[in-house]
Structure formats: structure tokens, C-alpha cells
Write a structure and sequence with these properties.
mainly alpha; about 0% strand; Four Helix Bundle (Hemerythrin (Met), subunit A); 6 helices
Amino acid sequence: MIKYPTEQQIIDTNKYVLDTIRVRKADKHKVLSPERITQAIESAENENGDLYDKAVVLLSNLTKGHAFDSGNRRTAVSVAGSFLDSNGESGEIVHNANILQGIREGFYTKDEIKQWLKGNEIRPFKRF
């Protein structure tokens, strides 16, 4: 049985990452769209494939969905890592702002993101 994060767990994760990984002085915990959080969870649940395919959907939707006022990418990478960990996949996803920006802008394919989540290299993000 696959364990998916709840909406509240993702909200709590956003608060946690904003408290522990300060990037901007103006960072604040505020939920802008609970619906986008729920959509990200449901999309992961409905995704065919393995845990990594589901983690890609969760990561991508949370990164692109902008459900929070601040820390969307930090929250997304933390949630994806916790999702994999809670389902028996140990791996360490390294927070990389450039890669997360590339995910947000649709630069990477799902397979590239999947390989990155597995600990493999990913091509550098470049804007066109």
C-alpha cells in the first residue's frame, strides 16, 4: 500500500522548510491554494508507474502549482523526498534551486526528473 502525504502534512512541511531554510527575509508561511495541494496529491495517486513516477508528479505539481506564498520549490523537494522515504525508497534528493527552476519552467522531461530523484546526474538548466 503506497503512503501519500496529506494536505495537512504538505502544509506543515511548508511551514517547516520556511523556518529552517531561510532564503529571503520576506519568506512567510501562507497557503494560497489548498486545491492545488489536493490536485498534486490526486495526480500522484492517479499516475501509472512506480514510486518514482508518482514522486515526479508530486514534485512537479507542487513546484508549478504555487500553492504557497513562499517556499514552493523547497516544499516540493522535501515532500517528494519524504514520499519516497516513507514508501521504502532511500535516496537523498539534493535541493538545487536551478534544477527546481527548470522543473517549474518545464525544461526537464518526466524521465529526466525521475533519474535525478534516483540520484543520477541531470543536464544543467538553461533558459532559451
